[in-house]
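Lab meeting prep.
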Amino acid sequence: MHIRGSDRARLATESDYSTLLRPIFRRIEGKFSRAEPREHALGYLQGLLASSGQQNSRKAIVQAKDASSDGKRRLLTTSRWDEDGMRDEVRDFVTERLANPQGILVISEDGFVKKGDHSVGVDRQYCPGKRRVENCQLGVFLVYADGHGAAAIIDRELFLPRNWCDARDRRRSAAVPTDVPFRPKDELAGLMVGRSLDAGVQAGWVVSRLPYGGSHALRAELERRGMPYVLAVAPEDLPDVPPAGGPTASGFERRLLRHAGADDGGDQPYLCFVPAGTDPARLEHALRCAGEAGRHLRSAREEAGLDRYEGRVWRAWYRHMTLAMAAHAGLVVARTRPAGRRRPVRQAGVSGERTLRTCPRPSAEAGGSRSAGPPLQAGAAR
């Protein structure tokens, strides 16, 4: 899902990314009650797509059209808009356009290296991208993969280390809400998976190649929902009695799968909960899709500025991540769906199906969507 530099330049020259962003922005613009932050948001999205991997968000902000840097900073901190509502719209946009009953919810992580210790959640902790301990923030992400090579981030949570949770002064300086408790990463993952399933997201699997399988609470909740899973587990967290593969009363069976890819070069154990008689090839396919999550996170970094921000406070982190998710979702969907193709979408609590229009597939010459009208303006009619 990577745009070459030459294609990126042609995209910016042709339409300032407005054609590519039109479908996703029309989906999220209703989260802004005033025109000014709505215009700043559009400029921010365009700046994220236009900026290179070496630029930070301040430079991306300067590049954005018709909006001040001060206004863009307010967008991340004091402007009134609903970042969680936008998160839900991005999730629904992605999962409707990539809808697949056998879609895969992938639990993943990404680290954001920081020099100081004032940015919210910064600590000495393992950074997945660097594969070593770094001074970094750690985000837990939920990626939706359609099983055919397309995937995008649909949820995000910042991991707040316990030493942050117990430090009132640090919490206050980073504007961490007083009702935010310490939550281990597996609990954050469970919150995101639960939100998606409660919203009616079509998915056949929950998969992680990170050792989230050691969480009994996460496994129990997925089993309660009848949701198949393939979750990596640290060797020390393996159950004393490995799953025997016998069917449960619900028609599922628990398995222990060993798959190449452990950090030491050996086999990584996975705890599985699958319908009885599931072909092992389906588990292997789900794991391959999960293994691509890191690539999709890198794409969100390089092409949509996931890591290009300077905000130190709690809300700024969530707002930037949500806007970057929206920008990346626009890229992914534009490249994935042929013109005119419709996908059935299941809604929570609705037995029927509805069809949705999809945005055109980007032309090979431009690297982006074919022009479907005038450049997008903030506040454009739906």
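Slide two material, second protein:
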Amino acid sequence: MLWLPGVLVLLGGLPGLLATGQVDPRGWMLTALLLAPVAAWLVVRRGVGAAFWASAGATGMILCCAFLAAWRVPAVEPVLWFLSVALLATLAGLWLAHRHIPAFAGARRAMGIGCALIALAAWSFAKEPPLKPFPGKRPELAVITGLPLFWREGEKGLAAKADAPIITILRQRFEVEPVDSPLGLGKAKRLLLAQPRAFSMNELVALHGWISGGGTALILADPQLRWPLVLPLGDRRRPPSVTLLSAMIEVLGVKLLPDADAGEVRHFLGDGRMLTLYAASVLGKASPDCRIIEGRRVARCVVGRGSATIVADADLIDDRLWLADPSAPLDPAQWTADTPQFVAQLLGQPLPEGRRWVRTGDALVGAVRWAVLVGFFWAALGTVLFGPWNGARFSLARPRLARQEPEKGD
């Protein structure tokens, strides 16, 4: 009973972790409520000390698993929320099972139920809030793309107009405006250029002039687009399968190079953020004005008074690669990668960050094994301290004296 509660709490939170890959101690808060009946049972059998020992072992197993799975220390706020729920659940079990003060039985039950309700409320309030629109004036963002970011495939007319999840998120920070050509950028200072159609020479000159004049451009150029499309080959609405911006990118200062890895890759950035790339290319340096970073997947170039960031993949903004629930793009708990935060930051309006991600499947398996092993040794030490051979030695409860019946003749 000192070891099994931690194992149950640990395994109960794994389905949510596997759904998104996010390692968040708040994902174990609901299963931590199991510590209430465990504490109630242990306080009766072995005393208050054993109940707290089991709860400490369960919380230690969760934090050990969270650290080893992501190989990063969990954020402070989620840890505090999880610890508060575990403590409240333990106190609820103690108050509901404590019977050494019969005169206050009603008050004990009330306090136990109150702790349980507060734990449920903490679990509800601890969830990361959905993204909300930027409170101030939102900067204008122009988007030129051949990808289905503003319409649904397979439909015609006004019914086809619909924002992709990445556009829904960008609208919380920008005034997003779809543009057909670089000639229509107007006064916009930010541009998202994602796998566009072929540009004429005049359009290329206008785009380069707009960037060098002080514009900020994020260019998603994919030499091997793998975006699933229902439109038939030859349809003008299909985005180009290979980027048509190679010549312009070389003018900016980098070269697109082929990469042998053509599958889906979870790519970790230097600051711990994670992107899911699909058939991504790599970049080679061709100008001293460009700096290649993040494993040769990203290049930052200074162009006159402006700047351009080139990413060698356009599939990364496909919601199937970064979103678990397509109906909830504004809920960060449903993200399976840091793609929205990455894109918004490069455009100058960062989103909340700090998520931890499972490094690999093997890392998760190892984390669970080590957490179970740590919990086992903790429980073994607790068995030595609170076993029946020690009686009530380590219990905070006062032993009750046995009632003696008077003998005959007294």
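Talking points for slide two:
The two ends are 46 Å apart (CA to CA).
The longest strand covers residues 140-145.
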